[in-house]
């Protein structure tokens, strides 16, 4: 579904990704972790075509992201993104947030889009909040709406960039529970997170990054029980 081949990227003179390769199969759940500044967000943005790459190749569902002929907005619309900071439209209700893109980009009728929004709100446990504005929701509730909004585009894969890092501790689990259910439904997911309990329970593989390199790419159990690199071991000893 997603292949990353020998990808390198710099911001000006600063190298942030060096020769990164990995692949995510349909239905696979991959957790990406590593120290702050190791390039996790950049990797996610490159996969989504939000940042250009300097070398290598990224292919999403058969389409090369860097290809000149690729319709990037169209490709991006097929990949759901969830960020640390929710980024709901503040002047729109929950339903309006979820139906905007399907109506505009997928040409759904309002009635169709609202029906689907209701189904998705049910799925993330937010059906009672359809007419609220983001400011009147907790962080955990906003993030669940953001997940529903991404799902409304019928994405082929979901990318999460530290979806629970901005949340108060008591709200983290309600978001992780929604993500776990999504994983169990067969969604292809790349999740940047430091929630190692979630990684252990849900991930098929763990990718560990350090200084712009993929240092480790292992089945989840191997990663936790016998990390191959000293750097991953050190990281785990600090975080667990
Ligand atoms: P992570 O998500 O693992 O914390 P990032 O991908 O955000 O790491 O950042 C990797 C490195 O790239 C950091 O050193 C960061 O300062 C740098 N960086 C990120 N975005 C930009 C940008 N837009 N311009 C310049 N440098 C950036
Ligand atoms: Mg980041």
Automatic annotation (TrEMBL):
Predominant localisation class: membrane
Stretches assigned to coiled coil: none
Subcellular location: Cell membrane
Membrane topology of the entry: Peripheral membrane protein
PROSITE patterns for this protein: ABC_TRANSPORTER_1, ABC_TRANSPORTER_2
One term under GO cellular component: plasma membrane
Gene3D superfamilies: P-loop containing nucleotide triphosphate hydrolases
Gene Ontology MF annotations: ABC-type amino acid transporter activity; ATP binding; ATP hydrolysis activity
Regions crossing the membrane: none
Keywords associated with the record: Amino-acid transport, ATP-binding, Cell membrane, Membrane, Nucleotide-binding, Transport
Occurrences of domain ABC transporter (ranges): 2-236
Family: Belongs to the ABC transporter superfamily.
Name of protein: Amino acid ABC transporter ATP-binding protein
Species per Swiss-Prot/TrEMBL record: Limobrevibacterium gyesilva
